[in-house]
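Q: What does the assembly look like in three dimensions?
Context provided by user:
Components: two
Sequences:
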Amino acid sequence: MDKAVQVLVFVGGVSAIVFIIGIFVFITKEGLPFLLGRFDVAEFFTSPRWRPTSEHNPTYGALALIAGTASVTGLAMLVAVPFSLGAAIYIGEFATGKTREALKVLVELLAAIPSVVWGFIGLSIMNPLIIKTFNVPVGLNVLNAGFILGLMAAPIMTTIAEDALKAVPDTYREAAEAMGATRWQVIFRVVIPAAKNGLVAAVLLGVGRGFGETMAVLMASGHSINLPTSIFDSVRALTATIAAELGETAVGSDHYRALFTLGIFLFLITFIINLTADLVVRGIRKK
Amino acid sequence: MVTAADRATSVARPKVEVRDLTIRYGQKIALHNVTLDIRENEIFGIIGPANSGKTSFVRALNRMDLFTPGMRVDGTIRFDGREIDKWRNVYALRKRIGVVFPLPVGLPMTIYDNVALAPRLSGVKKRAVLDEIVERCLQRAALWDEVKDRLDSLGSLLSGGQQQRLTIARALSQDPDLLLLDEFSIAVDPVTTMRIEDVLKVLKEEITIVLVTNLVQQARRLADRTAFFLMGEMVEIADTEDLFTRKTEDERTQAYVEGRFG
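A: Here is the predicted structure of the complete assembly.
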């Protein structure tokens, strides 16, 4: 009996590793022929021309897609970081009893809203609102997608940031309060520095979420290939490109394999971001 | 200018006057009807077994009841003649009262920043001034020689005894006129304890010290006067030597200081 449970738990634990390696092997296998053949590093990273369907001269420049993802994620973080850190500080340091419990549940509910619903909000509410407010022709742009994505990422960031604040021992707060620090001084001078690693991890995981998000960005960003010069430009994200195009490519074609190459690139970026977040949480820093 | 008359009144007026102090946590009474005075520049010892209300008493002095859920304080405590719950700015009150908790709390910042925190909170920015405060407080807490070459390393990495001296240095950096020590030697080795005790003897020339301890002999070594708390009651209060030489009234006190219970 004991043995059986042990095996079950072992399989459960190992399966995560097996799956992640399996996924990586799969996308690498599908993308590799392109990477070794048609792929041109300079073109991929410096050309904004993503024209895989051109009959005579297909080009595979991902710069505009990278810029699209980066600009949307960047704006999303500008929205999400103050919101989520503020919420975490309120929930963790000020709210008490029922208020606190209710807020925590609500924040977790917010995190559970499907991304397509957020995309729908971007499409049907934000879009006309942006057109009217800023008097621009299109409301599906960096601003829209970034804002939506920021709201999407904020709940999960709030939860992680609040955990980080909660992990700061009360003795620290007590010691600081006893020496005459005000609540804000306690929070800014003692609690936040002590929770710094967890807070940075929360932000990094939000960034990872931004890079990986597909549906909401696809719906709200305008999905047009552009190097954005203002927040009112429509852009296209890496993820959205894969989602929108993969269904229409012939399996094994250059286009198909180029999309998998985008997948490898995305995988590596999110992997690095998550790994960094993890290392930061563990406090592995220079010093 | 301080005239002789001023000095006379300041000697006459106790540093802390406690009247009919009762402390409750919900329904439970932690301390019942305590009345006592703490004189300027004395070490005032409080002894008693666990659960006798010693820590609650200390927490009430610094108005820590404000952030202790369920703690209720009745009666009056006057600090320098002013009722502490009438201080409009509780932070200003706390700045004048340093606290050292039983377990050392090295805040997760450098040794320097630990000691410079309180002055910085009060708005001191000049590096030279801070340097001077940090060195003076670490000296007084008998820690300077051990850490002077690594002020930039984390305070939380020091050993328990060093952290407790760091905590004392931090309490002193507020420049308090009252220092509350709550069983400071629990996590400190005997040698360090003796060093800190020596420090306290010097400090009392300048400030008033309340020493809560479960080590009866520590009270005897340090305190000018000692109060004996038992199960939320103050059994008696006397000059320390009288308490230890059977000159006091209460049988329970004798039993406790002689180690027959507790």
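Follow-up: Chain B has eleven helices and ten strands.
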